[in-house]
Amino acid sequence: MSRKFLETESPSWVTDGLISEAQRQQLLARYPPEAQPLGLLPLLGSVLVGLSALSVVAANWQALPVALRLALLLGSLTGSYAAGSYFLRRGNDDLGHGLIGLGLILFGASIILTSQLYQLVGYDASGLLAWVVAGVAVSYVYGSRLLVLLTVLIGAAVQTYCVESLGIFSYVTAWLVVGGMGYYWWRRPDAVSATVLAVGLLWQAGLLIIVLHAKITWFFVPAMAIYAAGDWHPNRAVGRAIQVPSLVAAYLFMFGLATFGETDAYANILRPPLLPYLAALGAVFGLSALGKRAQGRLASLPEWLLLLPGFYLSGGLTLAVATLVVLYAHAGSVLARANREHDSDQLTLGAVLFVAATAVAYFKLTWGFMDKSLFFLIGGVLLLGLSWYLRRRNAQVLAAAAPPVAQQAGTPPAPGNDNEPEAPAHNS
Question: How far is it, in rounded angstroms, from Cα 244 to Cα 402?
Fold first, then answer.
């Protein structure tokens, strides 16, 4: 249930006598105001204006005098920051942050163009590091999710350049993003910034695995470390937001293993040394479990089922059955938690995961020996039956959550309650 829905519908509930005004205020207090959406128009505007300016200048760059080139760079940079500060003082935050973001983009362009201007050949990323430092700095100064997004993107771009062009991994860039923006997320919790940061950190982790030429499954050690950080954050919604990208990556990996892991051809790319890998993943698991316990979130511990190293099993039926069991157990844990918490959204997610696991099991285990017409007929019947059962279960969960709400609102118990005394009969 969203606050916007409550603000819209709750006055009519008070008018109809379903709840009192005091109870309405309690409901509103339970659902705090939602964060303002990220201003995509200022972001897109900043990017398009920046690209336009860069294309015009780049087309005539060599023909311009050196002094004019420097003047253009400095003028556009200072002009963007000055205009952004002006609109921020006037209370136009979206436009102001958009212009500050444009200034951040132009700062990076100035570094690159100045390097070309003086024919400076870069064998390291020291110049581009200043761009990341500037992004972290302006994010703290202005406290804008737009600037957080740009900084994470800049960090990813600089790291990609280091890996692709220089063949190195810039640990300084990684630590600027992890430490600078991670501390920003911890001190200024925000769901959008958390998700953006998690995706950026996963990108950094993937590039590190590429540079180190390590088994790709090592990726899940830093990925689940990001997940563990969410377990320790006191704000449940924000902690959950930073965990979702890691969970999605783990689920897609397990789903792909269940679908395509028929043979041992994957052994050379998926199987790291057993003991070091389990020790590292176990340490992260322990950190996550301690965080869940400290914040009272142990119910989500079964999400770690997705990290069971089934790729150490031989391919074929053994691996297929093992991964399907994991997918079913994970879907069942989501459904069980949704049932306990009366969470319809989690119930829907669990239903989708259950149907996905059933579809994989059906295709993997029956396609080879069942006639195609019978295959599709039974599959359709199974999916229709699952749809009916899950809809029925969803209705039962919502119905179970309704009586407490009705009692809080002062609705009298339904007739026929054994504990309710009967009204005295009146003689005619």
Answer: 29
